[in-house]
Every structure is written in C-alpha cells, then in structure tokens.
Design brief:
The protein is of the alpha/beta class and 512 residues long. The protein is built from 19 helices and 13 strands. Helix 6 crosses helix 7 and helix 10 crosses helix 17. The N and C termini lie far apart (95 Å).
C-alpha cells in the first residue's frame, strides 16, 4: 500500500463541514477531498431541503456529474462518506435540526465556509442576509464546535476596491458588521435600497461591500473569541485547469457567461480596458490552495497574532491582459463555434462609452427588438429583449472588474509551494507560475461549451458550416444597412437625387 504524504496524513480520520457544497467551488472541493484524501472520516455538507428527495438521493446526484467520473471509476463507495444535513445559513443555528446540529458540534474539526450570494446586481438587503448574516451564523456554530482546529472563510480578492495595492490583510471600514445585520433585520428591502448608495461608498456593488464586512466580522471573532479562522480570497474563479477534468465548469457566472454570450452572437460590444490584467484563478488551483492552507495553519508551530489572509491569485509572470484574453476567445470562435447561435459572433472591445452605446443600440437592442417582433407575429415565445436586459445588467456590474487594473500581493498563497514535497506538489498543484495561460483559456471556453451549453464537440463540423453562412449574412446586412444610412444622408443633403440610382449618379459624374 502506497504511503500517505503529509497532506493526506493530516486529513486522515478528519471530519469536515462544508457550506455552499452544491456550488461550483463546493463540488470541486468535495471531489478533490474524496479523491486525494480518501482516508478522511466524513464530509458533512449543508444543503437546502429539496421536496421529495432524501439525503442519499441528493448525494447520488453528484455521482452523475462528469466532475465525479474519476471517483465513480475508481472508488464509488467513497460517496458514502458524504453526510448531508438540511439547513440554511441565513437562519440561526443554520436552520439545522437538533440531531444534525449536535452531529456537527460533536464531530467536526474543519469548517469550509463557501456559501455566498455572488449576485453583483442584487440590492443591499438580500446580500447582507446571505453574505453577512450567513457568515455570522456559521461563525456562531463554529465557536461551539468542540474539536474545531480550523475555520476557512472564503471571501473575494476584490473586496478592498479603494486600495492601489491589495495586501494579504483585513482592512477596516467605517461600518460595523453587526450594525448592518441589525439594520437589515428591521428595515424593508425598499428602504435599504434608498440608502444603498450612501452605505456602499467606494464599493461598486453590494457583493464586494458585504464580503468586506464579512471579513471584518470573522477578523473580530478571531481576535475576541480566539476562533481558529483564516480568510481566503480567490480572484475570479474560472474553469478547471487540470482536475478533475480540464475545463470543468457548471456555471455561466463571470467570464464563462461573457464568452458564451459572445459566442452565441448575443453580446456584441464590451466596455473594458484591454491593457488591464485579467485577474482569475482556475478552480482546481483555488481548491488545492484551500486544502493546503488548512494543513499549513494547523501544523505550524505557532499561531499567527493576526488573522491569516491568503490572496489566491495568479502569479504576475503568467497573468494576461483582457485584450489578450479576448483575442484568444475570438480565435476560438473559428475552432469550436457554438452549434446554435443567434448571429455571427464578433465582439468589439472599447473604452469609449459613446462608441460602446452606439454598438449596443445598433447590434444588440435593435436586432433583439426585431427578432422578438418576428416571434410575436409567428406566435412564438419572445426572449431576446429579456436576454439583452440580463446582459445589460451583467455588463454594468462587471465594469469595476474590466475597467480597472488590480495589483494583488499573494505571498502567503505562493509560499504554500515551499512546504510541499514532490508528490504533494503534483497532487495539490498550486504553482500558478507553471500554468500555460493560453491553454487555460482554450480549455475554459471548450468547458463552457460542453458542460454549460451541453454542446458536444461532435457538433463542431456542422457549427463551422453555419459560421461561414452567418459571416456572409452579417457582412451583407451591415453593407445594406450602411448603404441605406449613407443614401439617406446624401439625399437629405441634396447630393443624391432619389429619382436616380447609384449607376445613374456614377455615370453622370464620369460624363461631366
């Protein structure tokens, strides 16, 4: 039997409690722990009750995902180590039954708090309840766990928006987290929306604001209650680089959604700074980082006086700009186009807000209105205006990420490599210096196509034929449109007599 490495030995016989287990990062964390640390004792996962389905049936749903294929091929029985408990992080005691709560308090040793609302466009109250109140409830339960050795609070690298250099430390904010929790408890959502702008201050959305306050709450408990906690801040989490399969993704949040919308021809123009760094981290590196961070903190000889913070971001040697990212994405449209698209995919990148607005009106809103009009005539369900509204909201809240250049310090995260043996380096890969950024983008785009759009690569030949047809139609329509606009301008200015055609005017010019 192969000897366990130090990470596997650390997790041997451990019981782990995970919130947000059904989310993108949560599922990858469960799979990685079961696959690489299979000697752990139990993984307790907090899940919302689902009518008509037992805990076993909910766990069995994991086994049907491509994400869990290598486990199902090698050790399917290990799924029995997953123990689902029904609850909700927005409720006191996480909404758990006495039996399930007692099971967590008596057995858990490590808590991974991943549950959060990622809705950048959400109004203030829902995100306070989910991201701030929810974190407080997880902290309150964690403080009561008898044998707790580490709680990991997952935040975001973008929660300190006003700083030019983003260090691995918690920065104070004028607002007290508990005051905001109390405020959300008695003010209505509409009332909170009226004071939202004043409360957010430098923050561009309620997501970064509430994650900032949640960090302060966890930091305060670390100092006041001696809670063994740490804060992990991933940048934009993108599809997997290596594990468990390259390109795995199950959500169109963030870059995958933008790329898929542009690949479908629904997104035609993006407001961004092409020279800004595209700050992302593949999900498998982020998850390996979580696993390594816990091992490091729990085995180091002395406890840190300040709460440990880890900015989980890419090394500057392999970072790419937004311009390069979209260049690669555009190239991919010819290699693996979507089998069904609304129009020929062609995205314009600009910093000019006026030019952006013109493009959006001409090439997104007018076609959307026209398509919905045709659908109305033929008695079909209209959807394009709804799609464009969602795209508009999404692109508006993403501006703070696409227009600014971020400067992260990630020494704590990078130092994890120094404590790894050769086997651990390969098994829990966190060395972003060795990533092929272009390959990462290619895999992410293919992953979004295959796993989110359910569009297998077998459709590529057909899609390429469709792309050629759409290219001709796109050029023809644009030519006719601009010809019509040009003619109207000439007629209005008196240069063009509407009674004569183009050939008449040309022959008249040469005759003269």
């Amino acid at each position: 039997m192969k000897e366990l490495n130090s990470v596997q030995k650390f997790y041997k016989d451990k019981t782990i409690f995970i919130t947000g287990a059904s989310g993108f990062m949560g599922k990858v964390l469960i799979e990685k722990l079961l696959y690489s640390c299979s000697d752990l004792k139990e993984i307790i996962i907090l899940m919302r009750p689902k009518r008509g389905k037992t805990g076993k049936e909910r766990v069995d749903e994991f086994s049907k995902l491509p994400l869990f294929k290598r486990i199902m091929d090698t050790n399917p029985d290990i799924l029995q180590k997953i123990f689902p408990v029904w609850g909700e992080i927005t409720q006191p005691n996480l909404g758990l039954s006495d039996e399930h709560l007692n099971h967590i308090l008596e057995n858990t040793e490590i808590v991974f708090h991943l549950a959060a609302s990622l809705k950048l466009e959400a109004t203030l109250k829902p995100n306070i309840i989910m991201n701030l109140t929810g974190t407080k409830n997880v902290v309150d339960v964690s403080k009561r766990i008898k044998n707790l050795i580490q709680m990991v609070h997952t935040s975001t690298a973008f929660c300190n928006v006003e700083f030019d250099v983003l260090e691995e430390k918690v920065n104070d904010f004028p607002h007290e987290p508990l005051d905001l929790i109390n405020l959300a408890g008695w003010l209505s959502e509409d009332a909170m929306a009226t004071i939202q702008k004043d409360l957010l201050g430098v923050h561009p959305n309620t997501y970064t604001y509430t994650k900032r306050l949640a960090e302060i709450l966890v930091r305060n408990e670390f100092e006041k209650s001696n809670l063994p906690a740490c804060i992990v801040r991933p940048s934009i989490v993108t599809p997997s680089y290596q594990e468990p399969i390259p390109g795995w993704v199950d959500s169109l949040n963030g870059p995958p959604g933008v790329i898929m919308a542009s690949g479908k021809g629904a997104l035609r123009c993006i407001l961004l700074n092409k020279e800004a760094n595209f700050e992302s981290i593949p999900v498998d590196l982020a998850i390996n980082g979580l696993i390594m961070i816990v091992k490091k903190l729990c085995t180091q000889p002395t406890k840190s006086k300040e709460i440990p913070v880890f900015n989980v971001t890419m090394h500057e040697l392999v970072r790419m700009t937004y311009g390069r990212f979209f260049d690669l994405s555009v190239a991919m449209k010819d290699e693996t186009p979507c089998s069904v698209s609304l129009w020929y995919p062609n995205v314009t990148l600009t910093l000019n807000k006026f030019y952006y607005l013109i493009n959006i009106i001409l090439f997104q809103w007018i076609p959307a209105i026209f398509i919905d009009f045709l659908l109305l005539i033929f008695g079909q369900k209209r959807f394009m205006i709804h799609v464009q509204k969602k795209i508009a909201i999404g692109m508006d809240v993403l501006k703070c990420f696409t227009m600014n250049n971020w400067n992260f310090r990630s020494n704590n995260f990078r130092d994890l490599v120094e404590i790894q043996s050769k086997e651990e380096y390969d098994m829990f890969f966190v060395d972003s210096r060795q990533i092929d950024s272009e390959q990462m983008v290619r895999q992410a785009i293919i992953g979004g196509r295959v796993y989110c759009l359910k569009d297998p690569l077998s459709t590529v030949p057909k899609a390429k034929r469709l792309l050629k047809i759409q290219y001709v139609i796109d050029k023809l329509v644009k030519y006719l449109f601009f010809y019509w606009v040009f003619k109207k301008i000439l007629v209005y200015s008196g240069i063009w007599d509407p009674n004569y055609g183009v050939l008449d005017i040309v022959s008249g010019i040469f005759h003269n």
